[in-house]
Every structure is written in C-alpha cells, then in structure tokens.
Design goal:
This protein has 117 residues and is an alpha+beta fold. 36% of the residues lie in helices and 27% in strands. It has four helices and six strands. The longest helix has 17 residues, at 45-61.
Length: 117
C-alpha cells in the first residue's frame, strides 16, 4: 500500500465517522517527514477520539500500524504517525489556533476524490 492508498483509507475512515473539513496535503516535495498530511476536525472530544479509533482500525485491517499516536487522552489534537502518512485530528478550536493548512501551504492540496484515482 502506498502513501496515497493509506491516505484514501484514512479519509474513508474519517468520512465514516462524519469528520469535519477533511484536508489532504501532499508534502512529499517540501518535506521528508511524510508524503501526505491529513487534517480533519471533530465537533467534540468523543468524536475526535472516535475518528482516531476508526482510522487506526481501518488502517490496521489494511496491514498498517501507527509508529506513534499522541494526544488521545486530551483529544484536542490527536496526531497519528504512519510514516508516509501523518494524520492530525483536531477539535475545532485547536484547528483554528494551530492552522496547519497555513503552515504547510507549500504542499499541494489534494482533493479526497482524487485519491480514488
């Protein structure tokens, strides 16, 4: 499974649990951290945790285990590191505060639909 395939699976998992404003950023050309960042929001702590759990479960079924997961207990920003894919799941307030879309604007925004190709 490529980074793109992992991103597609993660987006499906996020959509399944009604994530808000899913953004995929291709950072392969601007960073060695990963190929893709996914940024999404949940409306409350329980939803943020449910989003992370569903992503982890679906990627595990596809054969991928996270290198690290941070922030699950507080659930205001959960970071899930899968090597080629890094997923950021925020509550709405912290997403606005950290504004990762602005920080990583040198990356290429990728539509979720284009991951299907």
């Amino acid at each position: 499974m490529t980074g793109k395939d992992m991103a597609k699976t993660a987006c499906l998992a996020l959509e399944d649990k009604k994530a808000v404003d899913i953004k995929v950023i291709d950072i392969e050309k601007v960073s060695t951290l990963a190929d893709y960042f996914i940024i999404a929001s949940g409306t409350n702590r329980n939803q943020v945790q449910a989003l992370a759990e569903n992503v982890e479960e679906m990627l595990e079924k596809a054969g991928y285990r996270p290198k690290q997961i941070e922030g699950y207990q507080n659930a205001n920003w959960i970071l899930m590191d899968y090597g080629d894919l890094v997923i950021h799941i925020f509550d709405e307030e912290n997403r606005l505060f950290y504004d990762l879309e602005r920080i990583w604007r040198d990356g290429t925004s990728v539509s979720v639909a284009s991951l299907e190709d």
